[in-house]
Amino acid sequence: xxxxxxxxxxxxxxxxxxxxxxxxxxxxxxxxxxxxxxxxxxxxxxxxxxxxxxxxxxxxxxxxxxxxxxxxxxxxxxxxxxxxxxxxxxxxxxxxxxxxxxxxxxxxxxxxxxxxxxxxxxxxxxxxxxxxxxxxxxxxxxxxxx
Length: 146
Prior knowledge:
3 helices; alpha+beta; Aminopeptidase; 36% strand; globular; single chain; 7 strands
């Protein structure tokens, strides 16, 4: 399966990502609607992944926190392609985007099942489990190579 991952450069790209977030967070996981869209979406840099048929199968965003760091968030992969490397491609593209922006550090509030995914990619757990929107998460951090 061929996947195209790119920076979301149009409203159509972002809307496709929002629809996938809604399908995963709200429908599949039963998380309240605020995870579909929030005020950070307007300031975030978004990434989308499309399959050969033009379906959005992955998305994520980075939100700048300060002059040197950003938060990875709202990263989801369609159930039909999980375990096939789409999430890793999206995360790689988000990290590349952060690097292009001159940022040195990324953090993520990872859902517990996603902790190994991020740990395998160099993110380090900090602190204890906390609830976000009623879902258990852990803070993880990664410094980008200069």
